[in-house]
Sequence to fold (344 residues):
Amino acid sequence: MAAEPLLRVEHLCQYFGPVHAVDDVSFSVMPGEVFGLVGESGCGKTTTGRSIIRLYDITDGSIWFKGQRIAAGTLSCRRRIADARRRMRGASPEERTALAAEIAEARRQLREAVRDHRSVSKDLLTRIQMIYQDPIASLDPRMTVYDIIAEGLRIHGERSKETIDGKVYGILDRVGLTREHAHRYPHEFSGGQRQRIGVARAVVMQPEMIIADEPVSALDVSIQAQVINLLSDLRHEMGLTVLFIAHDLSVVKYFSDRIGVMYFGRLVELAGADELFAHPLHPYTRALLSAIPLPDPLYERDRRRIVYQPKPEAEDAALREILPGHFVRCGAAETESYLREAEA
Ligand SMILES: Nc1ncnc2c1ncn2[C@@H]1O[C@H](COP(=O)(O)OP(=O)(O)OP(=O)(O)O)[C@@H](O)[C@H]1O
Ligand SMILES: [Mg+2]
Fold:
């Protein structure tokens, strides 16, 4: 039997008024896996990450971590209740009985969602840590590096100075900084060093899962590789599971086991990293791939950049499994043509 996923995101919706930042996104991440989430600016990657660590109350769907539901939205329950109430008018007695049962069931699920959402322990939530997209904005300029890294430990109830010292200095050393750096402020560091501070702040909590939100996109290419290597080493050493967010597919390629591609709040394709690069199926993924420069000048000369032209979605569009483990968002009628393409 396959292992249980460490993280399961089910029908996640995060709406900000009319903006559907994340809309019906589902995926799971297995223990020890690196799951890459890619897509262009504004497609909802950060919102997905922030929803998982509960910086937002999610609009709808569920998030499960280690078998526990850590976040649950209620929109679909509320809609079901409103819809059944509307249909009550003019319904026959038998229909009314069925609708009353539907309302009772939706109410029960809503109560369960609220209860699960409220009863999650802080301990469980600290098992997931986030490395933030913008290392400048996410590090408080008035705090020393020591206090930045120690903050989570203190909030978590650690009082012993000796323990905190040990952990902070130990982790600084591990991420390639020194003890002397501890009493300086974020602005005194380079971009790469700041991101190391962000990594230290996350891993000092000894999480099981890291959400790395474009951890290197603000850095020079030469520095990017160093930070990716650090994350990769830590991942193996600490047995971390990683949700790796990026807008650039080339960055996630070598680091991810599986990749999910987001477009406008939706997951449009999901596959193993090698499979996605070898057989991209969704036109948006193909366009993203065509934007990656190739190291070989001969190929580079022939590279054709594809511009994605979205077509209206099928009414029944959903993430559908075309080949084992390879999913594409499409209508039921389109699966045949995707299958033919995949086998071509
Ligand atoms: N707190 C918020 N309130 C209102 N709208 C928001 C909020 N956060 C994000 N959005 C909107 O939701 C959408 C998705 O934003 P998000 O930051 O998740 O994108 P992203 O994929 O991380 O983009 P980037 O690659 O630029 O970081 C955008 O349209 C954004 O403007
Ligand atoms: Mg973002």
Remarks:
- Residues 45-46, 133, 213-214 surround magnesium ion (ligand 2) (CB under 6 Å).
